[in-house]
Structures are given as C-alpha cells and as structure tokens.
Amino acid sequence: MEGYDKNDLASFHLQLLTKTIDLKKYPLTRLVIEKNITNEEYKELFQLLHTINEEFEAQKEEGFLNFSPLLIHFAGMLNEKLNPDETIHALKQEGYFVELMEVFINLIVERE
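Below the sequence we write its predicted structure tokens.
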C-alpha cells in the first residue's frame, strides 16, 4: 500500500462510516465532523459545559431565576467554529446537560 496518504485513507474511512450511521440521531457528532472540531477542541467544549453546568446548579440552589448570563458566557466561550444555537440543540438532542440546555433553549426562544 505504498503511495497512499494516511490522512486521505482516514478521511475516506470516516466518509464511509458517516454514511452507515444515521447522523440525524447524533447531531453533535455531525457538527464535530462537519466543523472539523479537533479532539482538543472537543475536550474544551465539555470542560466549558461542566463549568457552566456547575455554576447553573449553584445558581439554582441560591434561587436565581435569570440564567441569561450563563448563556452569554457559553456563547462567548464557545469555539468559533460552532454556532451556539445549533450546538445547544444538538447537545440536548444527544442527552448532554439536558436541564441546562432546556433553559438555554427557552432563553433563545424568548430572545426571538
């Protein structure tokens, strides 16, 4: 198999795999692939989400009702390759941080 590029081969295999998976069920995975999110960027996203979710839980316990600053912080810190609204919907659909994502979606709907 001389003369082949390992990156081209991996890309080709990934294309084949994505055709076998119903990516509508995995919108976050689809976004990661489409937006060329690296492993490091993916880890940073989930670190951000864990931090914001902890703050959300703390604010809920304190009786906060306005979580707009958390949404603004999330959108501001999100990787520029990702659209905040699309990412929030994808996270909720895949079952990540569901309560927080529902709050964010309600804020987005109110904003529109």
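The chain has a mean pLDDT of 91.
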